[in-house]
Amino acid sequence: MTKLERVRASPYLTRSSPASQLQSGLENFSPFLYPTPYIYKQPRTSRYDRSKKQQAAPAHVKMKLHAAVAASLLALAAAASAAGAVTFDATNTASGTPGGRRFDQAVGLGYAKRVLSDASAFIWRTFDQRSAAARKPVAAVTLVVEDIGGVAFTSGDAIHLSARYVGGYPSGGDVRAEVTGVLYHEATHVWQWDGRGAANGGLVEGIADYVRLKAGYAPAHWVKPGQGDRWDQGYDVTARFLDYCASLKPGFVAQLNAKMKDGYSDDFFAQITGKSVQQLWQDYKKKYGG
What superkingdom does the record give (predicted)? Predict the structure, then answer.
C-alpha cells in the first residue's frame, strides 16, 4: 500500500487538522500527525562550631580548597551550559475554550514544559544520543495548545496540541497522563531522524509510539503484541513490532534511528539483526500466534 493509500484509509486525518489542509495525493501525507481514536535537596550543609580558639588553615590547605572550589564551579557551569543548550516553552492560545480551560486546570503550562524536558532526555537515552553533536541541532522545543481538530501534530521543533481533544477526553480518564503520552510521542518527532524524508511514514510514527510505550504511557486500548496486519502499519502496531526487534537486538531502535539520519532502506533491519524485516515480521506473528 502506498503512502497515499494509507492516508486515504486512515480514519485519523480530518479536514480540521492543519496538517490535512493540503490538497490531495501525497501532499496530504504528514508523518507527524497523531491519530484521534482515543479517544508525563539542596546539599546538606554541616554546621560547624566557630570556637574562639579556631585556627586559620595553613596556606597550602587554602590553595587546595580554592582549586577544588574552582573546579567544582567549572563543572557546574559546564553542566548548566549543557542543560541550557535546549530550552522548552509552552503557551495556551485556547484558554478561553472549554478544552483550553481543562488543559490549564488538569495539565498546566509548567507541567507541560517539564514533560517536554523529561521527554527529550528520555528520547536521547533511547536513541543513545549522549552528546549534543549526535542529535538534531534543535535549540528550542515549544508547545502550543490551540483550538484545532485532531489530537496533535509537530512541525519542526513546534508541537501543536488540540484543545478540543483535551476538552473531549473522557471525564473519567486521566487526561494529564494522556497529554503526557501524546507529548512524548510528538517530542520524538522533534528529535528523530526520518531518512531525509525517505523513511516509511508508518515506521516514523511507530518509533514515536515506541518511545511512548517504553516511557510507560501506552494507553490500555493499544493493540496487544502480535496484533496488526503489516509491520509498517504505524503507531501502536509498529511500536509493538519494534519492541520485539529490540528484544532480539538491544539498542535496535537507537541503531535504526542513527541509520535513518541520511537516508532509508528496509535493509537496515537486516544490517542490524541479520534478518530481513519481512522475516522478522513473520517470526513476530508466529511468536504471538498472529
Answer: Eukaryota
Measured CA to CA, the distance from residue 28 to residue 18 in angstroms comes to 11
Determine the structural domain holding residue 226 and report its residue range: 195-290
pLDDT, tens digit only, all 290 positions of the chain: 433 333 333 333 333 344 333 333 333 334 444 544 333 333 333 332 333 334 445 555 455 556 665 565 555 444 444 444 899 999 999 999 999 999 999 999 999 999 999 999 999 999 999 999 999 999 999 999 999 999 999 999 999 999 999 999 999 999 999 999 999 999 999 999 999 999 999 999 999 999 999 999 999 999 999 999 999 999 999 999 999 999 999 999 999 999 999 999 999 999 999 999 999 999 999 999 87
Residues 6+ apart with CB under 8 A from 288: 224, 225, 226, 227
The answer to the question of residue 57 being in a domain is no
Sequence-ordered list of residues with C-beta below 8 angstroms from that of 211, at least 6 positions apart, any chain? 119, 122, 123, 126, 184, 185, 187, 188
The C-alpha cell of 158 is what?
513546534
Cβ atoms of 206 and 253 within 8 Å: the answer is: no
Provide the domain count of the chain.
Answer: 2
Determine, yes or no, domain membership for 7: no
Residue 28 CB: number of other CB atoms within 10 A?
A: 17
pTM: 0.74
